[in-house]
């Protein structure tokens, strides 16, 4: 499989020059353009079919490149990218990362200049109804996307396992703070199901769902719950708050302590993700391990599989999760 970088080395030009010529962009001398186009045709590149006239462009039958479309770069996404890059080495691909900017598709994807696409959608993207299907094999991580395979986890089932563990610790009454989008609803339903299996109560007035995941927007909701508890009504005396993810749980644990309550002695805190960061020196979260590196790696492997099985129907793969028992929740008296 001849990649653009291979053509560039062979012709003693930059990869950027090759990319511009194959993309039909101006600014390259006719001599160099003809040399690159001739070498590309010999390597198996073909003309792009376009509905309207445009400068001559060529796309590769196999570029050796996969695009990773990631909404932002933080610890969560960094672990995902580690898995993507590691698996790309296994499959013989290089990875280019698109800075996701709420556009339907990265340009290199819409132009067919990569072999495949790995997408991590934002929750806002997930709600959009006009998402464009990619012209290359695509695997979406966590969220369903039109025409794409999906690598995900069982959000309800994994959250229910967490709820069963928490319920066995006899919290009596529990509160929940989560995300209002579908994955958040699935996690909440799972946690509540597990808790209720052990007889714990999750009253509707102790549930807060937000469309935002920023801590500064969610902590006021935690404050509302603490105010209800402080009011003294027996049905609001919760001893546990479960959260949509570890990020919110860590912030909440500090916030609860700032309010003069002890974690986990007065109120236990549980999360979801297992980012591995302690809440404080003396406290690690009880949570669910989301296999981020494995999700990224599996997405690349499935793009590779799809290249060899283009006619197969879209498939939804579920990766296993596991419970992580930290010290942020204590057993209560029965």
Structure description:
With 334 residues, the protein is α/β, with parallel strands linked by helices. The chain folds into three domains: 4-59, lambda repressor-like DNA-binding domains (434 Repressor (Amino-terminal Domain), Orthogonal Bundle); 65-153 and 292-320, Rossmann fold, CATH 3.40.50; 155-290, Response regulator (Rossmann fold). The chain has helices at 4-11, 15-22, 30-42, 75-91, 107-110, 123-127, 155-168, 182-197, 215-230, 246-258, 292-308, and strands at residues 46-47, 58-59, 65-70, 94-99, 116-120, 138-141, 149-153, 174-179, 207-210, 240-243, 268-270, 287-289, 316-319, 322-324. The strands form four sheets. It has a six-stranded parallel β-sheet, with helices on one face. Helix 9 crosses helix 10. The longest helix has 17 residues, at 75-91.
CATH topology of the largest domain: Rossmann fold
Q: Would you report the number of β strands? A: 14
CATH class bucket of the largest domain = Alpha Beta
Order of helices and strands: HHHEEEHEHEHEEHEHEHEHEEHEE
The residue ranges in which pLDDT falls below 50 over 5 or more consecutive positions are 49-56
What number of domains? 3
What's the Cα radius of gyration?
25 Å
Short description:
With 334 residues, this protein is an alpha/beta fold.
Describe this protein with a few key phrases.
334 residues; alpha/beta; 434 Repressor (Amino-terminal Domain); Rossmann fold; 3 domains; 39% helix
Topology readout:
Layout: H1 4-11, H2 15-22, H3 30-42, E1 46-47, E2 58-59, E3 65-70, H4 75-91, E4 94-99, H5 107-110, E5 116-120, H6 123-127, E6 138-141, E7 149-153, H7 155-168, E8 174-179, H8 182-197, E9 207-210, H9 215-230, E10 240-243, H10 246-258, E11 268-270, E12 287-289, H11 292-308, E13 316-319, E14 322-324
Parallel strand pairs: 3-4, 3-5, 5-6, 6-7, 7-13, 8-9, 8-10, 10-11
Antiparallel strand pairs: 1-2, 12-14
